[in-house]
Amino acid sequence: MNILIVGATSAIATSTARIYAERRNHLFLIARNGERLSDLVEDLKIRGAQSIGTLTLDLDDFAAHAGAIEAAVATLQQIDVALLCHGTLPDQAASEVSFKLALKAINTNGLSVISLLTEIAQRMSAQGKGTIAVITSVAGMRGRQPNYIYGAAKALVSTYLQGMRGRLHEHGVHVVDIRPGLVDSPMTAKFKKGPLWSTPEVVAESIVKGITNKRHTVFAPGYWRFIMFVVNCIPEGIFKRMKF
Q1: Ranges of residues in the chain whose predicted pLDDT is under 50
Q2: Distance in angstroms (rounded) separating the CA atoms of residues 235 and 213
Q3: Fewer CB within 10 Å: N-end or C-end of the chain?
Q4: Which DSSP state fits 7?
Q5: Residues 40-67 as b or e (16 or more Cβ within 10 Å = b)
Q6: Backbone φ, ψ for residue 199 (5° rounding)
Q7: Under a CB-based contact definition with an 8 Å cutoff, are residues 18 and 47 in contact?
Q8: Residue 185: which of 88, 95, 91 has the closest Cα?
Q9: How far apart are CA 240 and CA 234, in angstroms?
């Protein structure tokens, strides 16, 4: 298969790319940090990737998105799977009092994803097949006090994916919404870890399985489906007082 991974040097994306490399797929990787991207390429070659194309890109540069996807298509010929993994975890408290910071978080976690999806969807629709998978978050399912700006951006993407799934269905393109829970990664290094935390490797296995089985929504790990069911059942009068 020909696989495009955006945000390829993130912990989850790296673990997922390793699985696809071991299955001897063709990869095209897009990431912000060129040095880390080069290191990842060497790792994936050893693991068995058939070919690896790369592009270093600031993903907040929306004007460069069309060219980036064109470069991926030129290298891979066609994209069988597009996996979008990029994102940042904003400072909630600082973003609450600074619209500039809130906008930056929403641009990176929400609007940049939609910009890329617009370009990818056009090309997959034209080829009449393919799978688009995007890492969102369980944080997008309800606005919790500690991270509602990040959650709002992810909710935007999840709603967009749901509508796009319906639009692309008749064109033979499948859309997967991947919703990880708490993941022990560099992005969450400052957080105290507990029993609900998972690893990038476990999440990557869920991602590959969900894409292969053409799931619509993938909770990673699966127990988050039940946790979020309970969270969504909490009455708003109680929920607004909760600081978890």
Answers
A1: none
A2: 34
A3: C
A4: S
A5: bbeebeeeebeebbbbebebeeeeebee
A6: -110, 160
A7: yes
A8: 88
A9: 10
Q: Which two tokens stand for residue 146?
A: 């500690």
Residue whose entry in the numeric block shows the structure tokens 């066609």: 78
Q: What are the Cα distances from residue 115, in Å, to 34, 63, 108, 119, 120?
A: 22, 9, 10, 7, 9
Per-residue b or e along 182-197, where b marks 16 or more CB atoms closer than 10 Å to that residue's CB: bbbbeeeeeeeeeeee
pLDDT digits (tens, 9 = 90+) for 201-229: 999 999 999 999 999 999 999 999 999 99
Six-digit token string for 155: 């909710």
List the one residue out of 90, 86, 171 whose CA is nearest residue 134: 86
Query: Cα dist. 213→34, 175, 206 in Å?
Result: 33, 12, 10
User: Which pLDDT value is given to residue 186?
Assistant: 80
Under 8 Å between Cβ of 162 and 177: yes
DSSP-assigned letter for residue 193: P
Q: In this structure, are residues 20 and 45 in contact, taking their beta carbons and an 8 Å threshold? A: no
The residue type at 59: L
Estimate the share of the chain in helix, then strand, then coil, as percent rounded to the nearest 5: 55, 15, 30
**N residues, the chain:** 244
CB–CB of 80/23 below 8 Å?
no
Name the 3-class secondary structure at 218: strand
CA pair distance 61, 108, nearest whole angstrom: 10
Q: List strands edge to edge, sheet with 81-84.
A: 51-56, 26-31, 2-6, 81-84, 130-135, 173-180, 217-220
